[in-house]
């Protein structure tokens, strides 16, 4: 790995002259007392919007309403034994381990502990001040414990796995009351292909805050690890393109190559025509750069890719198929998925259109989906905004950030990724009409036809607020609106 890690010194936030840290210092300040009061109200079942930083309050909502974490928990549970880390991530964890050990040496005199966890929140290593480590072990902040939000509530490691960028959790911002004497800061390292967290590194300190220099240090420190992930994504794409080139030369037909996240790397002319994209959406043959890849607008395809990837692990000869609506307005056609494997791991998929071969895909029961959220959570400036679904006119994606357009203005969704927002809003009649837009069908004011027959939805007739409808989604939209 390359890149120079900057020095880490957190001693300035400790009392000087050998003075002992006063007991309860993390919960005694006016701001901490305000957060503690908000925590008590929220933990008792009230819905609140102010008094707590938006990212922390969004985490509390996940812990209370989605994960149902016991706020009286005082010891992190042990990690499941079958959550073994992927072998192809070993270089990343080796680099993070070296980074954690280096940082642990630098903060050993500052009462801090540095921990590294995998993408599911399982702690893999801990370094730092021996007395702080012993205190941390009382809460099982040690290797082979689970510190994901779903297991242990709001904390530096677990919350960093839920959001991008560095996260600080101080005192009563922790969901579990037993951890209110700790301050921590963490950052996740994410797969550039799938966007999923691969690992996190966290710095924790008992009964003393962390200085503002820690989050920038975390950002700089993990950049060398992110470079390795980027290099691996390019390497995997080269493997996928090579297999795509070989298969397309042998068989021809409509063939599409995708990375592990279901993004298109290459496609034959026949596949482009079948998708109805000729002259509309450019597909770059051999798009090894992750930013150049394209997400196909085929309803249900992301779920099929995830299913195929899971089924193909450990079986290089596996193939499976699903029937999906590839062409707008036409009946579903079979798509056969075959894995591209390197070092016994799936690095991509080849998708053959009109071919039915291998194991049949069975869609999961809708009943298996988790409980519906009590409200939709958005963020604006330094406030968390609680929205009822009826307030949302439409949602617009800007890369991985989703904007909710409401009577209260444009509000950023707390959940990242349009697919994730779509899953949470679909039960309320908010549906996909374009690869970048969701609309609340109950809020459509008018439907406008373009010169070439394309459709636009007018969501607010006062401002002539237009949302485009892609050709692929137009037939379903007409059926749902009865037009």
Automatic annotation (TrEMBL):
Q: Mention any Pfam family matching this sequence.
A: LytTR
Entries under InterPro entries matching the protein: GAF-like_dom_sf, LytR-like, LytTR_DNA-bd_dom
Report domain HTH LytTR-type positions.
Answer: 376-483
> Mind listing the GO molecular function terms for this protein?
DNA binding; phosphorelay response regulator activity
Q: Does the keyword Protein biosynthesis apply?
A: no
Region feature Disordered, mapped onto this chain: 1-21
Q: Which UniProt keywords apply?
A: DNA-binding
Would I find Glycosyltransferase among this entry's keywords?
no
Q: Which residues cross the membrane?
A: none
Q: What is this protein called?
A: LytTr DNA-binding domain-containing protein
Organism, scientific name: Pseudonocardia sediminis
């Amino acid at each position: 790995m390359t890149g120079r890690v900057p020095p880490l010194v957190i001693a300035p936030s400790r009392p000087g002259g050998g003075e002992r840290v006063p007991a309860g210092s993390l919960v005694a300040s006016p701001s901490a007392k305000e957060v503690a009061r908000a925590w008590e109200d929220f933990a008792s079942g009230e819905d609140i919007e102010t008094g707590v930083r938006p990212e922390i309050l969004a985490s509390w909502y996940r812990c209370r309403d989605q994960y149902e974490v016991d706020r009286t928990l005082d010891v992190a549970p042990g990690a499941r034994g079958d959550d073994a880390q992927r072998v192809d991530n070993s270089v990343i964890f080796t680099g993070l381990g070296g980074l954690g050990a280096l940082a642990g040496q630098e903060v050993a005199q500052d009462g801090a502990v540095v921990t590294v966890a995998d993408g599911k929140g399982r702690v893999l290593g801990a370094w730092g001040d021996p007395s702080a480590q012993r205190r941390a072990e009382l809460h099982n902040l040690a290797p082979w414990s689970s510190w994901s939000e779903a297991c242990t509530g709001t904390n530096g490691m677990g919350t960093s796995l839920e959001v991008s960028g560095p996260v600080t959790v101080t005192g009563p911002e922790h969901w579990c009351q037993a951890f209110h004497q700790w301050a921590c800061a963490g950052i996740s390292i994410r797969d550039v292909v799938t966007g999923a967290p691969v690992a996190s590194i966290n710095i924790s300190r008992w009964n003393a805050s962390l200085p503002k220099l820690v989050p920038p240090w975390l950002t700089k420190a993990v950049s060398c690890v992110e470079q390795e992930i980027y290099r691996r994504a390019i390497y995997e794409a080269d493997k996928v393109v090579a297999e795509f080139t070989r298969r397309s030369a042998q068989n021809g037909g409509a063939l599409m190559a995708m990375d592990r996240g279901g993004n298109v790397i290459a496609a034959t002319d026949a596949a482009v025509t079948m998708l109805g994209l000729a002259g509309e959406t450019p597909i770059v043959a051999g798009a090894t750069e992750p930013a150049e890849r394209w997400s196909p607008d085929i309803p249900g395809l992301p779920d099929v890719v995830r299913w195929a990837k899971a089924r193909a692990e450990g079986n290089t000869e596996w193939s499976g198929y699903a029937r999906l609506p590839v062409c707008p307005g036409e009946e579903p056609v079979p798509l056969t998925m075959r894995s591209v494997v390197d070092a016994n791991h799936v690095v991509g998929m080849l998708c053959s259109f009109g071919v039915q071969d291998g194991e049949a895909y069975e869609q999961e029961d809708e009943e298996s989906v988790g409980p519906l959220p009590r409200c939709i959570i958005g963020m604006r400036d330094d406030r968390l905004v609680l929205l009822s679904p009826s307030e949302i006119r439409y949602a617009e994606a800007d890369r991985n950030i989703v904007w909710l357009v409401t009577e209260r203005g444009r509000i950023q969704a707390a959940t990242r990724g349009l697919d994730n927002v779509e899953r949470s809003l679909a039960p309320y009649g908010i549906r996909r009409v374009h690869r970048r837009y969701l609309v609340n069908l109950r809020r459509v004011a008018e439907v406008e036809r373009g010169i070439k027959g394309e459709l636009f939805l007018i969501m607010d007739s006062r401002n002539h607020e237009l949302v485009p409808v892609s050709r692929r989604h137009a037939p379903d939209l007409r059926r749902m609106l009865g037009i």
